[in-house]
């Protein structure tokens, strides 16, 4: 067998066939590599070829979906003071939306005081508050008579139970707020809502019957507002992009 192998290697004819087969295999591998590279380049060109408004709205939608899908982590604290509301607002369909302040998984709740902040004081305005007075049968408050400050982007309120009410445990909405969107909004905005402690206290938001703070974490919230003009522009841009993609596919065939 070794002699036959040596004969095949030293024979010029068989050496030519082996060399030709090797070259053919190398050529096939190069062609496959070129096709993969061409496909990657075509995908990159298609992405770059999208218009700026399309890319902007796609990025916003990705961020909204990601923020709604990702589960927040609170470390070792199971009690959370959080904000909930719609993730996306279209002013052409509605000019008002609601935001809820919620105490989640709390034990021995006997009162609360907090401040809600929002970072946009130009395009949205808080118009109405609804305080949940059904947590305890007997209560005191709401304590803050003028709780809404749209110039600062701030809401401050407090409510406490009183005897013979007992401390409660569970998940409760503390207050609901109604906001209106400016009719002259012309660009996409993201509004962040954050709960914080009142001034002069050390993390004094949720309290028990001994007036001690109930340890808790915070969860903020973000709402994205997309005006009608931007949505219309998005539809036009996506239509143009789809047509361009179809034309490119036909040319490449």
From the spread of the alpha carbons, the general shape counts as elongated
Proportion of β residues?
Answer: 25-35%
The CATH class of the largest domain, by name, is: Mainly Beta
Distance between the termini: 51 Å
Following the backbone from N to C, one meets helices and strands in this order, namely HHHEEEEEEEEEEEEEH
What is the averaged pLDDT score?
75
Task: Pick out the low-confidence regions.
Answer: 1-24, 40-48, 64-75, 229-233
- Main β-sheet, in a few words? 8 strands, mixed
Overall number of structural domains: 2
Number of strands: 13
Given the structure, what is the number of helices?
4
3D architecture notes:
The chain has 253 residues and is an alpha+beta fold. The chain has two domains: 1-45; 77-231, Sandwich (Immunoglobulin-like). The protein is built from four helices and 13 strands. The strands form two sheets. Strands 2, 4, 6, 7, 8, 10, 11 and 13 form an eight-stranded mixed β-sheet that branches. The longest helix is centred in the first third of the chain and has 37 residues, at 12-48. The protein is elongated, with a radius of gyration of 32 Å. The two termini are 51 Å apart.
